[in-house]
Amino acid sequence: MKRSKSYVAAAEKVDPDNLYPPVEAVTVAKAGAKAKFDETVDVSVRLGVDPRKADQMVRGTVNLPHGTGKTARVLVFATGDRAEAAMAAGADEVGSDDMIEKVAGGYLDFDAVVATPD
Question: Which residues contact 45 (CB under 8 A, 6 or more apart)?
Fold first, then answer.
């Protein structure tokens, strides 16, 4: 199979027989980045667990140091002082009955919804 020039150039910088520590592997990956877009890296980790056994299941989340680049759009159903507090806290949209009608009409340009009891 014929490889592209950029692939061959990047492959020359990597020793396939060397097992790189994670920090060094990231450095090598960044050195080989030549694309005009933000490249990604996939990481596979062998944990040595049996997924058929419930006590060995591995679950969790990771907080990325710089986030994912996407900010959550928040819609708040509130009136009065609570509406003002929501805007001050950074809500993208605040409303009451008018916002309910807007959402019922098909408006879905938000990621999270918060509603006050009133």
Answer: none
